[in-house]
Design a protein that fits this description.
alpha/beta, Rossmann fold, 2 domains, five-stranded parallel sheet, two-stranded antiparallel sheet
Length: 258
C-alpha cells in the first residue's frame, strides 16, 4: 500500500506530470506522423536521454561510484592529531534573511566533526572554507562553522579557521600550511562521502596523510518501489552532483592539483 501511495503521489508531482505529458505528446506525434522522421528523432532522443538522467536508479549508481570508495567510518582513530572539516553551503543575508545560516550539508559535517572530537582527548579542529565569491555578504563559511562547532562543545582553544579558500584545492593547500606550522602530517578529513575522493587526492598531493570520514552518505540502499523509477528532479540532482565531482577530478588532474 505504501509503495502504491508513493507511486501515485509521484505521478502527481508537477515535474513528473509534465514529463509524462510530454511523453504522451511524443508518442502521439509518432503515431500520427505529423513530423518527419528526422524531426521525430531530434525530439525523441534528447527526451530519452533526459528521462535516464532523471532516474533515481541511475543517480544511485552515479553517486555510489564516489561514496563506495570510502565506507562509513564512525569511530575516531587512536592518536588523532587533527580533524579537518570542509565547508559545504550557506544561506547568505539578503533583504529578507537578515542573518546567515549554514546549509544542511555544512551542518551535518559539523555535527559529525563534533562527534569525532568528543570520542577522545581534545585535538586540533580546522574549519576550512572562505567565500566562493568576493562580494558575498556575511562571515566566511569557516567563521560560521567555528561558531556552530563551539555550540556543539568543541573548545574554541582547539579550533582554527582557514577562511581564505574558495575551492577544494585551496582548502587543501591552505590547511596543509597550517598543519605544517604545527608539525602535523596526518588528519581525519570530514566532508560528504561523494566529495571525499577528490578531497583526499588534494590533501595527499600536499603531503598530508588522510583518514577519510564521510559525514553524509546517500547511496546506501536502493528501494525498488515503482515510484523510484519515475523521472524526478531528485534523480537529476544526484547525477549532477556525481558529474560535478568526476569532472572536477579530471580538471584537477589536468591542472596537476591531484
Amino acid at each position: 500500500m505504501h509503495a502504491f501511495y508513493g507511486f501515485v503521489t509521484g505521478l502527481c508531482q508537477p515535474f513528473t506530470f509534465c514529463f509524462l505529458l510530454l511523453a504522451i505528446v511524443i508518442v502521439y506525434c509518432w503515431r500520427r506522423s505529423t513530423l518527419t522522421r528526422r524531426q521525430l528523432l531530434a525530439l525523441t532522443i534528447p527526451f530519452v536521454g533526459l528521462t535516464l538522467l532523471c532516474q533515481d536508479s541511475l543517480a544511485y549508481l552515479a553517486v555510489g561510484s564516489l561514496e563506495w570508495q570510502n565506507p562509513p567510518q564512525s569511530n575516531r582513530p587512536e592518536h588523532t592529531q587533527a580533524i579537518v572539516v570542509l565547508s559545504g553551503g550557506a544561506y547568505r543575508p539578503d533583504a529578507v534573511r537578515r542573518k546567515p545560516h549554514l546549509a544542511a550539508d555544512s551542518l551535518v559535517r559539523c555535527l559529525h566533526t563534533a562527534d569525532l572530537y568528543h570520542q577522545g582527548e581534545p585535538c586540533l579542529v580546522i574549519a576550512a572554507g572562505g567565500r566562493v565569491y568576493e562580494d558575498e555578504l556575511g562571515p566566511s563559511l569557516a567563521q560560521m562553522m567555528f561558531q556552530f562547532l563551539t555550540h556543539l562543545g568543541v573548545s574554541a582553544e582547539d579550533l582554527v579557521m582557514e577562511d581564505r579558500s574558495s575551492s577544494t584545492f585551496e582548502n587543501a593547500k591552505n590547511v596543509a600550511e597550517l598543519l605544517r606550522e604545527r608539525g602535523i602530517d596526518k588528519i581525519v578529513l570530514v566532508t560528504d562521502a561523494s566529495h571525499l575522493p577528490r578531497s583526499i587526492k588534494c590533501f595527499e598531493k600536499q603531503g598530508i596523510g588522510v583518514h577519510p570520514s564521510g559525514a553524509i552518505y546517500t547511496a546506501t540502499e536502493f528501494d525498488f518501489s515503482p515510484g523510484n523509477f519515475l523521472p524526478n528532479p531528485g534523480g537529476a540532482r544526484g547525477i549532477g552532483k556525481a558529474v560535478h565531482e568526476w569532472l572536477g577530478m579530471i580538471y584537477y588532474r589536468l591542472r596537476g592539483r591531484i
